[in-house]
Every structure is written in C-alpha cells, then in structure tokens.
Amino acid sequence: MTAATFTDTRGRTPVVRSRGHGANVLRRLLRNPVAMIAATIILLLVLMAIFAPWLMPADPYATSMLKRLKPIGTEGLPLGSDELGRDLLSRLMLGGRLSLFMGIAPVVMAFIIGGGIGILAGYAGGWLNTAIMRCIDVLYAFPSVLLAIALSGALGAGITNALVSLTVVFIPQIARIAESVTTQVRRSDYVDAARASGASSLLIIRKHVLGNVIGPIFVYATSLISVSMILASGLSFLGLGVKPPQPEWGLMLNTLRTAIYTQPWVAALPGLMIFITSVSFNMLADGLRSAMEVKQ
Amino acid sequence: MKPTHSARDPRDLGGPRQPLLSVRELKKHFPLKKTGLGLRGPRLAVRAVDGISFDILKGETLGVVGESGCGKSTTARLLMQLTPQDSGELVFDGLSLGSPGLSLRDYRRQTQMVFQDSYSSLNPRMTVEDSIAFGPTVHGVSQREALSRAHDLLARVGLEPARFAGRYPHELSGGQRQRVNIARALALEPRLIILDESVSALDKSVEAQVLNLLQDLKQAFGLTYVFISHDLNVVRYMSDRVLVMYLGEVVEVASADALFEQPLHPYTAALLRSMPTTDPLRRTEQAPLSGDPPNPIDPPSGCRFHTRCPDAQAICRMRAPVFGEAMPGRSVACLKYQPGSGYAASTIALKEVTHA
C-alpha cells in the first residue's frame, strides 16, 4: 500500500517519513465497521461502569419485600427487580464495574508476567527455554475452568484471590504465544544482524524483539478478556469470587437462578450483559488481528 | 567517514602482508536429535564445517564457491560468530579472537555481514535510517551523529537520504533493501565484510548494479570481502582468489584467474564444467557433476569426493588427502598432487598442468 507521508527534520536534512506501523494498524481498525461497533459498545460499557454511582436511578442495595421479582417495565423498575426487591438496572450498572475489572485485570497482569516469561524463554532458547516451557506446560495441562476453581477454592473466596487464580490461569496461555512468536523473531536475519553489530541481548530484545512480538501477544490477550469475564462470573456464581451483597453479573446470575421460572427475562439479564461484553471484546480482538495481519 | 584509504589504516596492526583473518581448523558439527529412545548407538551429527583453514588477505575479495549444503553459509555464520564453533581459531590481524587483545565486541565492530534475504534482514518496524544507525549507537555514537552517518551512507550506496531515510523496508524494492543492508554493514566502519549470497536473490540487472557498488565501496573504504556465492560467473567477476568447498572441507584455493583457467582439483573442474556457456567452441565434452553430494552425516571414507570423482583410484577410498600447496599460490586437497600418496600419477604431470 502507499503510505501517506510527511516531512520532518530530525536529521540534518528534511526527510520524507512514512507512517509507522501503529498508525497504519489504527487506520485499518477505524475502517472496520464490526470492530468499531464492538469498540463503541465496550466504550459505553466502560463509561457506564465508571459513572454508575451517578447514573443509577435507584439505590442498588435497597431491598424491599413488596417489590420482589417484578417484571421488566414495572413502574419505577425499568428492568424489574431481583429476589430481594432491589432495582435490577442499578445493580447491572454498578455490577459492570466488578465484572469488567475481573475481565481485564487478570489479563493485564498475565500479559505482563506471561509475556515476560514467554519472551525470555523464546529469546534464550536451548535448555532454559525447555525448562521454562515444561513448567508452563504443567499449568497448561489443566482445563482453565478447573484450574481457576481449584486455585480459588484453595485460596478461599474473595476478589483478590479470584484475581490471583485467574492470572495464574492465563499466564501459561500468554507465555506460550509469546514464546512461539519470540522464537520466530529470534531466528530472523535482522536479529542476527543486530547481534553481529555487537549489541547486548537486552538491547536487542528492547529494540528489535519487543516491537515485533508485542502485537500478536496483545491481540491474543484481548481475546482472553471475554474468557476471563466468564470465568470470573463462574467463580462468583460458585461463591468463590465476589461476595453478596456487592453486585457482580456472575453473582447476580447465581442469586437470580431461583427466579428462572417466575421471571425468566429478569433472571437472564446479567447473562445477557456478560454475553454482550464478551462478544464485543472478541470482535475487537478479531478486528485488531486482521488490522495487524495485513501484508504490506 | 573517511573518504579514501590512501594513508595506512591506523587499525592495521601487522602490515599489508599479514592476513586480515586467519581461519584455523574451524569445525562445526550439528548434532542430530536422537530418534526413538536413542539410548543406543553413537551420537550422529551433520558435519557442516569439518576442520577448515584458510587466510583472508588484506584488501582482497575471497570468493567461496561450492554446491548447496557444502558448508558455505555455516562458514559465513562462523566467521561472523553468529554460531559458536566446536573448535578452531579465528586470528584477526594477528590477534586471536577471544584473547585479551581482541574481544568479540571489538571483532564484530571490524567484521560485518550482508545476508542473502534483503527483506528478513531488516527489522520491519524500523525505518531505514534507524536500522543503519542502530550499530553505531551500540558502540557509543550519539543518536544524532549516528543518524547523520546513516544519511551519508545512504547517499553513498545510491539512495537519496531525503527520500529513503524515513521509509520502512516493505516500501523498498529488493535492490534498494540490499543497498540499505550494505549501508548498515558499513555503518560500523568494518574492515572485513562477509557477503553471504548477498546478490543471489536480485534480478540480473539489479545484481550487476549492486556488484559494481560493492566494488566501488571496496575501493573507497579499503575493505576486504568474503564473497560467498553459488554463481561462478559472479564469483569470477568479483574475486581475487577463490576457495572451493566440498562437504564441509576446503578442496582448493587459488587465484581466480588460475582457478578458472586451470582447475586442479577434479571437483573444481567438474564445477566449472557445470557452468553454462553460449560459446559453441567451449562446448563441454565431459559430463558435468551428476547426482547429489553424499550425506554430510556420514561422509565417504578417504577423500570425500571419491564417490563422484572421474579420476578416483582405489587409494582415494582409503586415504584422506592433505590440503597443501601443489604449486606456488595454489593449494589443493587431492592425492593426485600429493607426492608419495600412492596415487598412480602416470597420466598426470604437474609440469603439463602448469604450462597448459
């Protein structure tokens, strides 16, 4: 493609400069309608979660025996009420905070730790690679759900423990991707050329490896956010994550399950929120991947 | 950058007669992964480079030729120290690599390499100027100074800095990218440049331009080249001396003219016969080399070429030839030219060869 250019004067003479890789990816992403819709939904969800305390129509903790399990569209309860008569709309808005946090935070931590481990293993190669990756494989051998439940169960209920166990679940997955991408880059001629120039391994990783591996790892991590949200909801559902009365979509799904026969639509709403959010993150990840994969 | 080298290079230690790089008994075997349980049997290895020795003289272009898989590229990587050797020594201008006088870092500053694949040897996320400036900044040159040097070098290799410095590799053609690679190799002001099939992937017309550029740069900067190629015509055009490799060993070294006029080693002769010619008077009578080279995991006994050699005798299967001087300036590893080797030399007289 012909990249648009601009001129600058970083050196002595003015130089025609091409748009960088990041700018090109962003441009292609902006042209992808599906990814843009997903990004808009995510943005709205995030804004909703952040400003929930000011946007909520009612107190999400106020219970009322008289208003239990009202259907959607009831006067004063636009999305109905839960089994304790609390306003479901307010709880969904506030619940988005914890749900989004539990979706994003473990992935960010695993991205840093797992990415670091994978890049180290991939660049080192040889026996160090084998040692690190076999340890990672031990964790990878467990199904994610089982591992998350087992770890949370062992650590005890609570947000922090759920966060830790989810991070541990995602570290091996991200590390594997990071290792394979880094191994590929390490074998390239430009890394050899950098070695031939006498640069240290650390400098080569910083200047030549990172920029070429971070994209694919980031895309993969983005696609894990939805998995993390669902797992976190699952943990809350099992009573291993967020504790009542705090609102969180997974936990709300759990407590409302008793109402599935009386108010199925109300009971399904937290699940719908989880679904919309995770699908949006997946579509954004797909868009990001195709924006990065274009052969230039 | 220094424009010309009329004065002696201050880095020159041993004077013009001392080889720039002496390679001594360099060896690299790649062990094979054991199959199955692999507890029994000897450990097998691909003998990619099997004890080669040669000198690279100051200011020369040493061509390296041989079939695919003969160890040319491994040799290049060993010379650049991208692959560690199993044994053997590199002596750069009288200093042994790894000795207190010459660290790997110092050595790499004076020896650079241009790879075959112009695209994969440039970081796709770096602009051309940053790729060229990277090396000097590693060695303590300021970013500003390194960039200005990069612009000078771009101009020197025929790419206008204002147009090309801020470009990414995928925006350039193969020939332009290879010019960038050459500029990057020059950025550290090396004395030795290893050109590993550097022009092989280019179109013929572009190849000729790049070859001429390499010749110019060699003159201008007083460089020494190791020119590795499978294209014998190009090697003849570029090289002062030529080294012929077969199955991880050096079989012949001679000046380019002598080698192409009168090859001594039967393998060299066969290799030259495989060169296509358009001249009907130079039609080949003898069959060129046929078949593939033997397996480097288990090379033939005695002389490694005896399985394909038209002049092979019984002794060749038993006795490995010693690489040595057959006549002044010409070294060869063949029992034919080794006095007292047991090769029945009745039909071959050295004198005849010399005056041919």
UniProtKB/TrEMBL annotation, chain A:
InterPro entries: BP-dependent_transpt_permease, MetI-like, MetI-like_sf, OppC_N. One of its GO terms (biological process) is transmembrane transport. The chain crosses the membrane at residues 34-56, 100-125, 145-171, 217-242, 262-285. Gene3D superfamilies: MetI-like. GO terms for cellular component: plasma membrane. It is found in: Cell membrane. Residues 96-285 form the ABC transmembrane type-1 domain. It is a multi-pass membrane protein. Keywords: Cell membrane, Membrane, Transmembrane, Transmembrane helix, Transport. Belongs to the binding-protein-dependent transport system permease family. This is ABC transporter permease.
